[in-house]
Design brief:
Structural class: alpha+beta
Shape: elongated
Largest sheet: 5 strands, antiparallel
Helix content: 40-55%
Radius of gyration: 26 Å
Length: 338
């Protein structure tokens, strides 16, 4: 375990390096921070921190910079989540409240996160598998053609065309709509198949084929593989950090183009807390020079998706964690009210 004094030195090194972008020397530390010890003692502490892998010397004559291990200790032990100010909270709320639908909510969230953190913002659409059914609408387009509209508790709307095996009258359509909603409204998607399994038996023989076709379309909508959707924004922010990426920025950009990589980075939505992955903790090699700060969001107490930011390891972790958490809270409130 590091002594309290050496933890203070590490905190000071991280704060100065993030703020100045320059390797930090012992003389600068003693001038900028009230460490209560001599520069010689600080040099000894820095040597010990370097021996234990928390800081490194990028050049022979340079000061020290934090390593992934140093940032990890800083995030876990030394950094609190910086709360947003009242004006910042009002700005977030006002910006997000203007959204007209789920796509607009996600688009606004991406822009807002990118602006607040000056990093790359990634927002996952609410997952259907973690959603509940709010309403199923059935609309007649032609005697044998229907539109099925599925509305979730998170405001997601899915539309599907249904070609019926035979004409389906308005009375039958109204009956199916009522019976379907009485069974599935407010229920988890995973419960729906069992709830509608015997529904065709409630209809006349000539309508059962159409009812079965409608149910098949509904169930297909619930389990489609393309449900995991992402929106990304602020990629241009990476150009501000060219010197933070030891080789070139291309591997980072290529990794950000892969949706599967980003979904893995954000992590499981069921984990609602703020998660920070630093440098080599990111499994994808192209992102070894980045950090990812993510958090779950959703209506009620359960996370239905993740949002977060990707940036260089030289990141304002307290501020970024605070911004990501605050935005997630407001997005959850909007989904709950939608």
């Amino acid at each position: 375990m590091l002594s309290e004094r050496r933890l203070k030195v590490l905190r000071a090194i991280v704060q100065d390096y993030v703020g100045t972008e320059e390797p930090v020397g012992s003389k600068a530390l003693t001038e900028r921070h009230n460490l209560g010890v001599s520069p010689a003692t600080v040099r000894n502490d820095m040597a010990a921190l370097e021996d234990e892998g928390f800081i490194a010397q990028p050049h022979t004559s340079a000061g020290r910079i934090p390593t992934d291990k140093g940032y990890r200790l800083f995030v876990d032990k030394l950094a609190g989540v910086k709360p947003m100010t009242a004006p910042e909270r009002r700005a977030i709320q006002n910006f997000l409240e203007g959204a007209v639908d789920l796509d607009d909510v996600v688009a606004r969230t991406v822009r807002l996160l990118a602006q607040l953190t000056r990093q790359v913002a990634v927002v996952q659409y609410p997952s259907l598998t973690r959603s509940t059914v709010r309403h199923v609408e059935l609309l007649s387009l032609a005697p044998a053609r229907l539109m099925l509209v599925l509305i979730t508790d998170t405001g997601r709307v899915e539309q599907r065309m249904v070609d019926c095996p035979a004409p389906f009258g308005e009375a039958s359509l109204a009956d199916l709509r009522a019976r379907l909603n009485s069974r599935v409204a407010g229920r988890r998607f995973s419960d729906v198949p069992g709830l509608v399994e015997e529904l065709p038996e409630a209809f006349e023989a000539e309508d059962r084929g159409t009812v079965s076709t409608v149910l098949s379309t509904l169930l297909e909508t619930l389990v489609e593989e393309n449900e995991e959707r992402l929106m990304i924004g602020g990629t241009a922010n990476l150009t501000r950090f060219g010197h933070d990426f030891p080789l070139v920025i291309r591997p980072v950009l290529e990794a950000l183009e892969e949706q599967v990589v980003l979904l893995k980075l954000l992590g499981e939505a069921k984990d609602p807390g703020v998660t920070v992955r630093i440098g080599h903790e990111n499994a994808h090699e192209g992102l070894n020079s980045t950090s990812v700060v993510s958090v779950g969001y959703g209506s009620g107490g359960e996370a239905v998706a993740k949002l977060g930011v990707v940036g260089p390891t030289r990141m304002d972790y307290p501020g970024t964690m605070g911004a990501v958490r605050a935005v997630a809270r407001y997005v959850g409130q909007i989904l709950a009210e939608s």
